[in-house]
Amino acid sequence: MGGYAEGVADAVLVCVATYQAAVFPLTAFGISEEERAARRGVAYRVCAHEGLPQAVRVSAAAALEAVDEGVDAVRAHAAVRALSLAVYDLRAAR
User: Fold this and answer.
1) Which letter does DSSP use for residue 31 in this model?
2) What share of the chain is helix, strand, coil (3-state, %, to 5)?
3) Of 3, 17, 40, 86, which has the most beta carbons under 10 Å away?
4) Could you tell me the pTM of the whole model?
5) Degrees (nearest 5) of the Cα angle 8, 13, 17?
6) What is the DSSP letter of 72?
7) Residue of 55, 50, 51, 60 lying closest to 12 (CA atoms)
């Protein structure tokens, strides 16, 4: 299950990061509301996957909350960074 859990954790990180990029785009009007909603939906579905280890699940929930607020890019960046470290720790525990 180790490799499977790592793969799911990697997918979570990618989905949350792409959702973050949709909420805090680099250019004004860089993304449509439909695409933002789609990325949010995918991120939430992947983060709810049963194969996700608890530490990554908790970190992903915190990252989604920070990104959902959509007002503090620094807080959202820190939360996604913490998620990436949780994913890294999962790999290092092997």
Assistant:
1) S
2) 80, 0, 20
3) 86
4) 0.91
5) 150
6) -
7) 60
